Every structure is written in structure tokens, then in C-alpha cells.
């Protein structure tokens, strides 16, 4: 559905995207993840034909974004970052403009506007000026205009930014629902969000794609060792010595807590039963024992900092 | 074509939704009303005097005394007001980011430019239409030369389209509305009076500057002369700036 090859974008001497290539298949929900200024918005703007790449090609549904700009734009529903809307228009009037711009026929227009307003729950503010509405409503109006004319591809740039927690949950479930029959690309710098909604994640940093996979695979790939959190009431040095001596334990690190430790074990080995037994047999009190899962946040930090370290070496 | 229509309707709505239009319309009509009243009052004063001096009465006529100054004053007020109407057309969209929305909808750049241009001209045509009652007032008291009036209004309409195209161009250059208005006003004023430099430069450049001047071409309309060369000049002027605006918009495709 979307094919991007060796995309490079320069703003003057600043490199926003560097040789970026990726594919998105039909019906996929793909998350663009990266810190601020990583090049997410630039990539999305090129896909939506707002700006051309310096070099490389972007194709949507087999059509080149530069040569067939109008056709490509007709297939995409786009929510730009910061949701620019006309503040002096009412919701209904704005959506009518957007629908007409997208080529919805006049006969179908009213019905189509009602549909997207209902999907995005903005029917109650249909007659109010957009400039008077809260950020949450404006965000949803932005999504509503993207949905007009039922585009096959949705590109959402930071769709949940600035929303309150209930609205975030609503928007996420809305995106999931929409994703059942559409191709969706969304960008975010919030990890849990992307891992919840998306089937695949593209991690982008400094204009380059540093990883692309499913959230589960990314976790598995990068989780080299298992970490077990252990809290024991007992003499510190003795506990550390005894645990370190166990087979399969790589390292024991005392944490900030008075009697807690992080035990690193090699992958594929769950040492929790042995740890419990050792502690109890030594006559100490076992307070807590749990497996520490490497979160997407850690993976992300790892990828991003690895990258930066690599660059410094260069 | 469809894109033009969509953008036209949106711009028209936004122009009427903004207070700028109403302030501009009020000031425009108040000034034009004042100019009309003063020239008519002066004309009637001279008419009384002319009753006693037959020599003067031969000199008096409505076109020279009322219509020409009336159209001239409207054109000058337009010169001041049009930049205020056109300044927001592109600059505001750039500032608020809605330009990203506009140019990711399947609307061509040409459609957007034409839609905004026609909306601006429509608003000004309405302002001009609002000055027509003055002409009907003349009809009530005297026998005004309607062909002259029609030529004058055609001249004003063409002036409006030229002004709007330049204003649109200025608005596409910047995201600051004040800067857009300043550029448009400065350029319009310069082009309005550039013919005055005729006597300062050589004959070749002088006649070129005179040809370039908007005032030269407007004068004949104000006197009721419909010259195809002047119509052609205004159309060319408008097309030139619409074309330049389009090029400026397209520059986003190759500028870094």
C-alpha cells in the first residue's frame, strides 16, 4: 500500500531524513515512534504530498507522491500535527468544506458529515465555532475531517497529544476500530500508546529508521538478559555472595532500597524457584520476588542511546 | 475548477465571518459618501453661480465635476483598503498551519489561488455595488450619462482585480499579515504614481513608466472612455500576479 525508498530530506544543511525505506501493507496499523525532532512529521508530510523529498521516492497505492499528487491526496485522510483548523468556522461548516474539497458529492455530503461527527462524537458541537472549542474537541474534529470520504489510508500525526486520559482511551479505541478495514500510520513519542494500538513499530531517530518490528518481537530481540527483582531481609554481603554463587546468575546489583537486589540471569532460564529456595533455606525472610520485564521504554532508550554512542565514535 | 469553487465558498464565508470586512466596508462607504457629497455640493454651488455667468455654464458638466473625481476618489480609497482584505488570504493560513490541510486535500494550487482571488474580487465588487445608490441619487436630480458611469465602474472592477492579484501575491510571500499588507500597499502605491516620474527620466523610460502606471490606465475609464488597451493592461496585470503567486506557492516544492 505504501512504499518508501531511500527517502532523504534536507532543510538547508539540516538532515531531517536520511535514506529512509519502509513498506506498509494494506490493513496494517503502523506506529512511527521517535523522540521530538526525529523526522516523523517530515516523513508523514512527504507521504501526504505536502512537501517533496530531496531524493528518493514515496509511493502510495502504486502512485508516486510527486507525479500523481492529486490522486494520492484523494486516497489519504490526514491529521496534521497540532491540528490546524479554521477557528472562525463552525464544526459543520468546516466539515462541509473539507468534504467538498475531498470530492464528496453534494447529495452525499450531509450524510457523510453526520457519519464522521457521530464516529468522532462531535455531534454536540456541530453548530459551535471551532475557535471556541477545547483541545479535545478540536483533535476529534481533526480526526473527523480525516475520515471524510472514507479514505483507504489514514495518516495521523500525534493523534492523542493534548488530550485528557479518558479522551486518549477513546481515541485509541477509535483508531483500533478504524484500523480493522484501513491502513493507518500514526506517529507518536509515547511508547505505551504505540505498543497498544499498532501491529508494527518503526522506530526513527535522527532521521533514520533504527528498528522495525512488532512490539513483542522488539521486546524479545532486545531483552538479552532477564532481570529478577529480589527483596530479602538478611545481611547484605552474605545475601549477595550466596546469590552470586548460584548457577545461572550473571550479576547481582544492590538497588537503592535497603534490602533489595536486581539479579541478572541468562536468558531462557527462570531462576525464581531456586532463588526462593536459597533464601528460605538460609533462614532469611523473603519479601518480594518478581520478574522485571524490559519495557518498550527501555528498548527505545537503548536504541536511541546506542545510536548516539555510535555516532560519537564516528 | 471544482477546487476553485470549494476554496471560493470557504474564503467568501471566512471574509464575511471576519470583522475586518465590516470595518473596511464601513470606512470605505463613509469615505466614498463624503467624497460624493462634497463634489456634488461643489457642483451645485458652481451651477448657481453659472446661472449669472453664461461663460462658466459652458464649462460645467457632470462628468468632469462629479463623476471623474468620484471614481478617482473610490480608486484611492480602494488602494488603501484592498491590502487589508487580501493580507490574510495566504499569510493567515501559513501562520495557523491550515495551509497544510489545504494542500493535502485533493485541490490543485491553481484552484486554491483562483478561489481566493475570485472571493476577494467578489467582496470588493459588493463594496462597489454598495456605492451605486449615489448614482441613482444623481438620476433623481439630473440626467447622468449612464455609459460614462458604466465605464467608470468597469474600470473600478478591473482595478479591484489588479489590486487583489497583487495583494494575494504579497500574502503568499509571508506568514505575517501586517507584512503582507505593507508590501501590497507599498507596491500598489508605487505602481499607482510611477507615471509621475515621466518628466524626470528620458522619453523612452518615461513612456514605459507611464504605461506601467495604474493611474494612467484608470484615468480614461474615469472619464468614460472605454479603451481596449486599458482593459488589456489590467487583465495582463492581474494574470501576471496570479501567475507569480502560483510560482511562489510552488516554490515550496523545491525550496530547502
* Total number of helices of chain B: 13
Topology pattern of chain B, helix = H, strand = E: HHHHHHHHHHHHH
Rg over C-alpha atoms of chain A, rounded to the nearest angstrom: 25 Å
Low-confidence runs of at least 5 consecutive residues of chain A: none
The helix-strand sequence of chain A is EEEHEEHEHHHEHEHEEHEHEEHEH
Q: Structural class, from helix and strand content of chain B?
A: mainly alpha
General shape of chain A = elongated
By DSSP (H or I, 4+ residues per run), the number of helices of chain A equals 11
Average pLDDT level of chain A? 84
Q: What can be said about the biggest beta sheet of chain A?
A: 6 strands, mixed
Of all chain pairs, the largest interface belongs to: A-B, 32 and 28 residues
- Beta-strand percent range of chain A: 25-35%
Q: Low-confidence spans of chain B: pLDDT under 50, at least 5 residues? A: none
Number of strands of chain B: 0
Question: Any idea what the shape of chain B is?
Answer: globular
The value of Rg of chain B in angstroms is 20 Å
Compute the number of strand runs of chain A.
14
Biggest β-sheet strands, sense, barrel of chain B: none
Proportion in helices of chain A: 25-40%
In spatial order, strands of the major sheet of chain A run 6-7-8-3-9-10
Q: Could you estimate the helical fraction of the residues of chain B in percent?
A: over 70%
Amino acid at each position: 500500500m505504501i512504499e518508501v525508498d531511500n527517502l532523504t530530506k534536507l532543510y538547508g544543511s539540516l538532515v531531517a531524513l536520511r535514506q529512509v525505506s519502509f513498506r506498509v501493507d494494506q490493513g496494517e496499523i503502523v506506529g512511527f515512534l521517535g523522540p521530538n525532532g526525529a523526522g516523523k512529521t517530515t516523513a508523514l508530510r512527504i507521504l501526504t504530498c505536502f512537501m517533496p523529498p530531496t531524493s528518493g521516492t514515496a509511493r502510495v497505492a502504486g502512485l508516486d507522491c510527486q507525479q500523481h499528487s492529486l490522486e494520492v491526496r484523494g486516497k489519504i485522510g490526514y491529521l496534521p500535527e497540532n491540528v490546524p483548523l479554521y477557528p472562525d468556522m463552525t464544526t459543520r461548516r468546516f466539515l462541509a468544506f473539507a468534504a467538498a474539497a475531498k470530492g464528496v458529492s453534494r447529495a452525499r455530503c450531509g450524510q457523510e458529515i453526520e457519519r464522521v461527527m457521530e464516529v468522532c462524537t462531535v455531534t454536540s458541537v456541530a453548530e459551535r465555532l471551532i475557535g471556541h472549542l477545547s483541545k479535545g474537541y478540536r483533535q476529534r474534529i481533526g480526526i473527523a475531517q480525516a475520515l471524510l470520504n472514507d479514505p483507504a489510508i489514514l495518516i495521523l500525526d500525534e493523534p492523542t497529544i493534548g488530550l485528557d486520559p479518558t479522551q486518549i482511551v477513546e481515541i485509541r479505541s477509535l483508531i483500533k476500530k478504524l484500523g480493522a478495514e484501513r491502513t493507518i500510520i500514526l506517529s507518536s513519542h509515547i511508547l505505551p500508546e504505540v505498543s497498544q494500538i499498532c501491529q508494527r513499530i518503526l522506530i526513527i531517530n535522527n532521521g533514520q529508521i533504527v528498528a522495525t518490528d512488532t512490539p513483542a518481537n522488539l521486546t524479545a530481540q532486545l531483552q538479552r538478559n532477564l532481570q529478577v527483582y529480589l527483596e530479602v531481609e538478611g545481611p547484605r554481603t552474605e545475601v549477595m555472595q550466596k546469590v552470586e554463587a548460584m548457577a545461572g546468575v550473571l550479576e547481582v546489583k544492590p538497588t537503592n532500597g535497603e534490602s533489595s537486589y536486581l539479579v541478572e540471569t541468562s536468558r531462557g532460564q527462570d531462576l525464581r524457584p531456586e532463588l526462593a529456595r536459597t533464601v528460605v533455606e538460609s533462614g532469611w525472610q523473603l519479601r518480594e520476588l518478581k520478574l522485571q520485564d524490559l519495557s518498550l521504554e527501555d528498548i527505545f532508550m537503548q536504541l536511541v542511546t546506542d545510536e548516539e554512542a555510535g555516532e560519537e565514535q564516528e | 475548477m471544482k477546487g476553485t469553487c470549494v476554496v471560493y465558498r470557504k474564503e467568501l464565508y471566512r471574509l464575511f465571518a471576519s470583522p475586518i470586512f465590516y470595518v473596511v466596508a464601513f470606512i470605505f462607504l463613509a469615505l466614498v459618501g463624503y467624497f460624493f457629497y462634497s463634489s456634488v455640493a461643489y457642483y451645485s454651488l458652481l451651477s448657481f453661480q453659472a446661472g449669472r455667468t453664461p461663460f462658466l455654464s459652458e464649462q460645467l458638466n457632470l462628468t468632469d465635476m462629479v463623476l471623474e473625481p468620484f471614481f478617482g476618489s473610490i480608486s484611492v480609497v480602494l488602494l488603501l483598503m484592498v491590502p487589508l482584505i487580501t493580507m490574510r488570504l495566504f499569510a493567515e493560513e501559513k501562520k495557523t498551519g491550515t495551509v497544510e490541510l489545504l494542500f493535502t486535500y485533493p485541490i490543485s494550487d491553481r484552484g486554491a489561488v483562483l478561489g481566493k482571488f475570485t472571493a476577494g474580487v467578489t467582496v470588493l465588487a459588493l463594496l462597489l455595488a454598495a456605492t451605486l445608490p449615489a448614482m441613482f441619487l444623481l438620476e433623481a436630480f439630473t440626467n447622468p450619462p449612464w455609459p460614462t458611469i458604466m465605464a467608470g465602474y468597469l474600470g473600478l472592477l478591473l482595478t479591484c482585480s489588479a489590486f487583489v492579484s497583487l495583494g494575494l501575491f504579497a500574502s503568499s510571500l509571508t506568514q505575517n499579515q501586517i507584512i503582507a499588507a505593507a508590501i501590497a500597499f507599498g507596491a500598489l502605491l508605487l505602481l499607482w504614481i510611477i507615471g509621475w516620474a515621466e518628466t524626470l527620466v528620458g522619453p523612452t523610460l518615461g513612456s514605459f513608466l507611464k504605461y506601467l502606471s495604474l493611474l494612467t490606465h484608470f484615468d480614461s475609464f474615469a472619464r468614460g472612455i472605454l479603451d481596449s488597451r486599458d482593459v488589456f493592461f489590467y487583465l495582463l496585470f492581474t494574470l501576471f500576479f496570479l501567475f507569480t503567486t502560483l510560482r511562489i506557492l510552488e516554490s515550496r516544492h523545491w525550496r530547502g
